[in-house]
Amino acid sequence: MVEVEMKIRGLMMDPTANTPIVILKDVISDRMLPIWVGPYEANAIALEIEKSAPQRPMTHDLLRNLIAQIGATVDRIVVTDLVENTFFAVIEMTLDGKRVVLDARPSDAIALALRVDCPIFVNEEVINSSRNTIATSDIADDEDDVDEEDDDADADDDPFGEDDEAEWPDDFDDDVSSDYKM
Fold it and tell me: Residue 16: inside a domain, yes or no?
């Protein structure tokens, strides 16, 4: 299983669904992966991105504190699967020299990763199967390929593999990534 290291590029709001989206960006390419998250998880991620400390520990702070208190370390998080538009993730830790893997929602795993400063990985198959993966060069290549293929290939008309109207910016601007405010 090939995994790709990614960083958080930003948070934004889906204008259609009015839902927060975490944008992950490949550390060695321009490829980006949007993951829709809940408002509470987006808030937890935004607080940590902004380095804004709440008066009392939030759930992800509590989890970080618990992990530290039992003597474990978080090694990394991995977005492992995408099934019926639902992403899955794991938190990989070390406790007493043993590897411990916990099932988690990607939003919770990302919020924890920010708090413990561990790397975020995504399974390559997840990136490839996500219809919303953003890759400017891939879109241009796919558009060239469509021109060369039969007109019967309806599935190839859209670079994301479907005919919805999802439009992503060619260049992901820092101003756009900061649209999600507390």
Answer: yes
